[in-house]
Amino acid sequence: MKQPSHRHGIYRAVVLSKNELLIIKHIGMKNLKLKWFVSLIFILGSALPAAANVEIDGIIYSLSRSTATALEYTGSSEEVQIPEQFVRNGNTYTVTIVGSAGGSRISGLADYPIPGFVAPAVKKLELPSSVTFAYLSSQSPLIEEVETSSAETAIRIQNIELGTLTIKGYGCTLNLGINSREEDQGPTSVDNLVFDCQKAILTRFSDDTYWEYYSIKKATLTDKVTNVGGRFDIADEIEVANEEFDGVADYAFANCALERFKVNSTTSAHVLQNAKIGRLDISENIAYELNMASIGTLFVGDGVETYSLVGTARPGKIEGAALRTVTYPTRMSLANTTWYDFDGDGRLSFVTSGGGYYNNELQPLGMAEPVDDNYRIKGIYRALNSDNSGVPTVFINTKSAFKYDPETDGFNKAELPEGYLLLDADNNGLTDILTAEDADLFINYRQTDGDYLKTKLRFTTNREDVYNATYELSGNWGDNIPSLSDGWMINGSSIPDSYINITLAADLNKDGIPDLVDNNVGGILYNIGGNDYYTSPEKGEIHQCDLNDDGVLDYVLFDDDESKVYLMIYQSDGSYSQQLLIENSSVSNVWCKDFDHDGDIDVALTVDNEGGNNTYSFIAFFRNDGGGKFTRKENSFTEEYEFVGCNDVNADGLYEFIATDGGNRQTVLLGCDGNLKVTEAEVLHDSYLYPGSGSNAYGYVTGDMDNDGFVEYFYSRGNEIGKILNFGDRKNTAPEKMAAPVAYYDEASGKLRITWEEGSDAETSTCDLTYELRIGTAPGKADILATNSLADGRRRTLEEGNMGRNLYNIFNPSAMAEGTYYIAVQAVDAGGLGGAWSDDAVYQHKKAAADFSISHSEMTTADTLQLAARKIDGATYKWDIADGTVISEEGNRIDVTFSSYGEREIGLTITLADGSTLTADTKTVDVLMFSIGSSYDFVPEDIYYDWDHAGFADFNGDGYVDAIVSSFAASAHKGMWSNDGDGTFTKVGKLFNTDLSTTPYGILDFNKDGYLDFMSDEEKGNVFINSGFDDFSFENSTKELMMINADRNIPRGLLLGDMNNDGYPEWFYDTSHTANPSYLNGGDNLTFTQVESFEIPDKENPEKTVRLDAEYYHDINRDGFIDAIASKRDSDNDIWTMYALLKDQTGDFSFEDEKPMFEVSFDSYNFPALFGDLNSDGYLDLFYRKSGENFIRVIPGKPESEWPCKEEVRIPLVGDYNFSLLSSKDDYFRLYDFDNNGYPDIPIKAEDPAGTDAMPSYAILLMQPDFKAELCRTNGVSNDASPFIALSDGAYPQIGGYNKTLGRSDNQAPERPSGVMAKQTADGMLITWSDAKDDHTPAVQMQYNVSVKKKGATGENSFVISPMNALSDEAAVVPSYMYKKSTRMTVPSEFLEAGQTYEVQIQAIDAFNEHSPMTAPVEVAINAAGYVDAADKVAKGAETTLKYVGTQASSFSYDLDGGTLVADNGNGEITAKWDEPGVKNIVLTAGGIAINTAITVVDLYNVDFTLPENPLAGAPIEVEVPEAMLDNSRESGFRCDDERVTIEWKRGDEIAVITFAETGTYTIESYVEDDIQGNTCRREAVVAETMPLAEIAGVTADAAGHYTVSWNTAGMPQQVGKVVISKETNRVEKYSVIGEADLSEGAFTDPESDPAVKSERYIINLAADNGQKSYASDPHKPLHVMINLAAAGGYNLMWNSYEGMEVDYYTIMRGPSADNLTELTQIAGSQQNYTDMNAPQGEMFYAVTFTPTAAEMQRAKAAGRASVAVSSNVVSTSEAIAATYATSMQILSVEPEMRLTYGQGALHLFTEMQPLSATFNRVAWEIVEGDGLATIDANGLLTATGEGSGNVVVRATAIDGSGLTAEATIVCEEGAGGVTELRDYNDGEWQLRVVNNGGNLMLSGWNDGDEATLYIVSMQGQVMEIVRTSDPQAEIDCAGYPGGVYVVKAIAGGEAKAVKFAL
Q: The dihedral of CA 932, 934, 937, 942: what is its sign?
């Protein structure tokens, strides 16, 4: 039963009598509450007395005065006709009522209490016109038809259930009635109520109480019905024959569903209230609302052009012969709407940013989930099939995405990564999401399992990175960067602040991977591989189009900032020519289309006349002549046009402009004819499109929304949206069906190359067509590469085709499993119609990739590397993560961290369910030491460290540094904060901290009780004393400070350190002061003297002094005292002398004589010298940089006996950056070992040449042994006093400036120092100890915390030297303190008390400020009587003298603690020795007084090493270096006098490599020497045999479908028993071991290879039983054959040339099956293709073989191969591809100048083929002239031989069967390649000096000022490297070259020198 709460009955009003009122009262007064009409009550009789019932003609009547009521039919007829009148007893009665109303008390009706006309058998009832009311009920159960003679008749039916009831005649008002008594009420229902009459009114009683009894299933109005009233929504269903009526009462069809209805002048406003109308016909506009629920089609009259829809109804379609515009009342805006065919019905709908979902008739559909309309969030407003499921997702903004739900026609929130640009970043068919965080860009790569992997992008402006990436492609360099010579593609110079507004992802450089374009800032980010991007500035919008019809997309650039429009047109030589089209500041927009419809792209520029400011507005066309030349044609307008769009809206093949006319407040359409003349403006609407009103092009949207060939146009205007239905009668037709594309797997690039021919369209020029590509696992599917078109070609979006104008795609198949795939293409025209899909190209993917994604190409030890592979059911994943740590693993994904710095190779092997394996190409990750944040990530955020003041220390001794926040912080954040141990901080809740507001000026143990205090400049006190309770309790007081020669009231400094070992620290480097002074402590922490220089006695005039500026403080001579370094300039000679002021052994601030330590030539009044032990040899080095130099000059420190140091070493600064040193005496930086390799690193700046900040502007030179360094870019480096210490366990940060650096490290705390010795000497107390051992920090870089405590003392002044940790092993060190860097120190005697016993303890501190436990106390008593003068250390077994110094004694005796008395020299002097190492505690008894002393006896250094048994000549031997040789402070090494021995070892290396050139007997010696002792070890090597050369005999494709590598097994030494086989990775010359086999096996099959897919590259090494390996063999790359249909017919075979053996000729094999091949023909070995023009019918099979030359054949036979022929894979004619062939080709080079010269001995050649959509782009290379001058390999690498000069003619031949060739003539200069003879010659005016440090060459000898050209050449004549320099020395790293002999040649000053060296 329907709920009638919104429906109302209709009744007729009458005058009521008294009795009638009683009836009403009986029914109930509440039933009188009728909404529209009073109930029609028919009263029987009049006021006259009633008469008795009578029967006339079988009808019983009740009579009144003159009327009668027919009550019952007693006859048997099925049809009854009620008479209008009858005569009874002379009276005429008129019948006015039929049937009893029921329950009436009126006389005559009492016998009929049940309502209704009693007629049990009657089916048809005819009523005369006199009847005004008839009752039908269950008394007439068979009634089927009632015919009336008056339309005024009312019929009530009640308590009756009828099948069909038909009303005929004039019609009636049919009322569904009720019984007067509720208990008598029964159901009233009609299954089918038919009005087959003129008037149809349907009503019912309105009281809700009785509605449950009513039911009409269907009401039918036949074509006879002309007037309608009542409420037909009573019926469940209504069928109406007519669409128009003479009269319809209000609400007659309310809530009804009608197929058709026509509105006329008689139709009221409420007739169709909430109705659903299939087709609504409105012949003219009406003034009132038609508030219908829905309208399918709205048809307006022929004369109506514009229809303004009012009310809530939204027609699904609006039609009309003249109708063009419809307006919809709505507050909704078109701004920020997303249009898409969500439900796949071919009609576009749209979603608003607020969550509304509408079809294109603005009918609301299912609702999207509401989104937060936050204007701060970057909008996306795009829908696409982002997960390849066929179900779209709509992206509203960076945080809101919603997946369409087909079941509900609505949307659900999609949980996707945040991001603002959708792209397929790696072109693998999966939609990725680009996002920005701060100044960093990330790509969230979608994985095949639906998850995402967030990956940070890495930028570079260094051209070298592009070249390196290019060379890595191994012959594919031509596919990566079109031109490196000039132009916009590769001119990275100025870099904007950040690239965070990427607006376009497009493949600009033709490598198949999208590049990123930032139109807002102005720049292009070229993807050069992985996640690395080369940044190139290019301001403005970029439009891609083919301007010169060469098949290559060119570019039109609109630089709005510089008011320029220019063209970049691709040239046949590979470059881009730049043409300035116009320079005009008024240009507002650019469009690139075929405006004159002549088949080529023209350019249109518009000039707006906003507000009349320009007087005129313009459309300027630049007509293209087809070759890229343009002629301008202008159209001007006086109107205030602003041009907002350009579309072909009327299907004429020409384009129209949409412009807003601000002066007339209109929007107009401007067409243009084929002559580029603009036609008269057509007004679209009387409203102005406000710029900026939304993301949808100024608030309008246009397109073919329903794929019907007509473009629609929507616009926003006030509170309405307008829609223009069409722009004329011309209908756009879809493009023609295209031919199937061609797809093949390119084994060189590992990509799927897909090409297709141009499309065709009747209206749109071919050059304006775009293309949509789909790839699926079944015909018609798009689950690999999703599409925006339906299966029938209809478009689902307004966007262009997903391929743009390209005719090819280089698809990344990494997400594809092995199997069959179906690829199709369609053309999309300018009107938005998609053509029919082409037939599917069927592609068989034979080799699934084991590819994986990485989250970082460059990461830090603080980052987590996320790895994700393609998810394969049943597969297991084995990751090679080097030394990484897996922190989580789940199936195909793992998370990894690294704890040390360096490059990591990441690999993956997938084992499938069937046991087969897939091995992924390795990927490289650069792991840096730390990350640098722009702010702290602990609370509060504005904690930062003012670099003038130390603010971090462990005040409560829990092992974590706490913070005192600077006065620059917010008030609530000032004060002391406790480190919680996880890197977060909590404010200390102590009274002293409530108003602590300034930064501490010194952190120290003020009262020498062992606990950390601090000094500050607070009003409440300047000294804060730690209570020692480890709970942050401090007592503050104000001490009176005496500041001598100072302009401050309290000392300041970056660092504190105890210069004179009195236990009271000095403050160093007050950098906030202009003079950078230091403050000397007066020995009480209360008196301070400000010093900027020291007065040194003048040697020539002792009565005078010399003033030297003291600028630097270091313990130069490692004696435990802090020394000073002062400078002095000799202005006459521009010589700066750096003097060492060595602190003497006293407690005064006095120095030994100044000693010239360094002498430097530097022409400036300010010398920016810096100091540090860069090579960790224990000597302080000086380094600096001159302005403009791309290197750092280092003067290595030496022993004092060799001062002054002058020799210079240079550290190159590599890259296109502006370098500068961060460190200076005015801006001092401490040197830290950031990478924890044992060598301090140098912070520098490396800025982009333009000086902007998009790239990190900071860098660190990571130092390595022998002053080698590697540049590491960072985004910030902190300063000298930065606390480089762990904030939490394992996390090593440096906090300083505004940054915090954070990293992880496997750093371990150092061991506790051993050998602690303390004794009394002439100067005081001497303390020594042994070097502490540490896992990373070398001995010379260790620091030590020394504690000297009075035995038994506690509290204040209990320490002479405070450790500032209360002797706790847990407390962290003070990071701003200068601890001792020596293993000895002296506490001057004036600070010691005679008779006092002291306890000495030492703690070791490594480079990361991790510390050891304190040593056990060593006691030393200060004796007033005297002391023993003895050496500190002595070698085991060495004799030494001990001598008493003190008061005269009568007798002397020594207790030597196990030593041997050698001689008693008398008077307390002896000679002794010890045979056991250790600290020897010696007691001298002098005259009865015991005097203690000590000596440390040092064990002999162990320099033992081991050589393998039976070493072989000609193969390297790796020797483990003895530990004693790893201390750089000692002289050590290996030596051999025989020149046939090569030893490769440099200081710090743990492995030495020794090579014996030939057989013989040799002696190798290791040695270590220092001031105390020396030791050597000799080993003899008898070399009886030579390691054979490793040679591959051949690599052939076997029958099982794999490559087999074979080798020689004959004539091998017995101990050579293994062969190691390696395969080249995806990186050039990088090989990975794939297996090991017994030498005797002779062959190894690579199970993962597939010759049918790609060729591999292999090398082998021979392995001996003693662990030696041979040098690697020459690489072999076997044959790989493909087949295609030849251009001239037949089948074309093409293959790569075999690498590793010479081929005289190839044999072409053919046969009917793969195992039945016979020789077809032989061709020259220089060819790489063959066309079979006479192939037999049926499927044929082919292979290519060759027989090695004679010598190589012998190797093959020695390998034991039955057949010596080398074979390719087998291909068949069924695999032949119908290729698109190249029509032209040109040879180009990666290098800017295609010429062989001294400085350029090699060229990387490639070919540029056209069209770009040519299927195959591989060529065969050969030299056809000048082959003696150069060689060329299969990849196009042309290398000069150095033999003569002349022209080299190179030919490239396309191997696709087209026969296309190209030649290039290349000039080869004399000596190009660098070497004309491979011998030594080194005489003449100067000699070449070559120092070979393990492959790192240091070259010098030419005259200073001469330019030198240096060549490294192999003995085969291959030029390995060329360097030009103007410096007097150069460094070339050859360590990565294959082992062997090389020649270094130098040309300088007109002379040439050559020297051989071995690797």
A: positive
Q: Which DSSP category does 1669 fall into?
A: B
**Which H or E element spans position 369?**
none
Of residues 1883 and 78, the one with the higher pLDDT is 78
The 8 Å CB, 24+ separation contacts for 1291-1298 are 1291/862, 1291/983, 1292/930, 1292/1408, 1293/930, 1294/930, 1294/1232, 1295/936, 1295/945, 1295/952, 1296/945, 1296/947, 1297/944, 1297/945, 1297/947, 1298/934, 1298/935, 1298/944
Torsion angle (degrees, nearest 10) of CA 1014, 1018, 1020, 1025: 0
Distance CA 1798, CA 1789 (A): 17
Token pair for residue 399?
Answer: 């945080």
Residues in the chain: 1959
Strand, helix or coil for residue 1903: coil
How open is the CA angle 1627-1631-1637, to the nearest 5 degrees? 155
User: Percentage of residues in the chain with pLDDT exceeding 90?
Assistant: 47
The single-letter DSSP state of residue 25 is: H
Query: Over the stretch 681-716, which tens digit does the pLDDT of each residue have?
Result: 999 988 877 654 333 435 789 999 999 999 999 998
Q: What is the pLDDT of residue 797?
A: 95
Residue 1046 has pLDDT above 80, yes or no: yes
Burial of 586 (0-12, 13-18, 19+ CB in 10 A): middle
Report the alpha-carbon distance of residue 668 to residue 659 in Å, rounded. 5
Q: How would you class 350 by CB atoms within 10 Å of its CB: exposed for 0-12, middle for 13-18, buried for 19 or more?
A: buried
Q: Residue 393: CA atoms inside 13 Å, Cβ hemisphere, count?
A: 21
Residue 788 phi/psi, 5-degree rounding, is -105, 25
Number of Cβ atoms within 10 Å of the Cβ of 1584: 12
Q: State the CB neighbour count (10 A cutoff) for residue 105.
A: 11
Cα separation, 109 vs 775, in Å, equals 84
Question: DSSP letters of 415-480?
Answer: -----SEEE-TTSSS--EEEEEETTEEEEEEEPTTS-EEEEE-EEE--HHHHHHHHHTTSS-GGGT
Query: Range with the lowest mean pLDDT among 344-353, 394-403, 1281-1290, 1716-1725?
Result: 1281-1290
Which residues does 31 contact at the CB level (< 8 Å), separation at least 6?
39, 205, 206, 207
Phi, psi of 450 (to 5 degrees): 95, -15
Q: Which structure tokens are listed for 1857?
A: 């069967």
CA distance 1791 to 1795: 9
Q: What does the alpha-carbon distance between residue 1020 and residue 1486 come to, in Å, rounded to a whole number?
A: 56
In degrees rounded to 5, what are phi and psi of residue 1475?
A: -100, -5
pTM check: above 0.85: no
Q: What is the pLDDT of residues 1439-1462, one digit of tens each?
A: 999 999 998 888 999 999 999 999
Reported as half-sphere exposure (CB side, CA atoms, 13 A), residue 1258 has a value of: 17
Residue 1790 DSSP one-character state: S
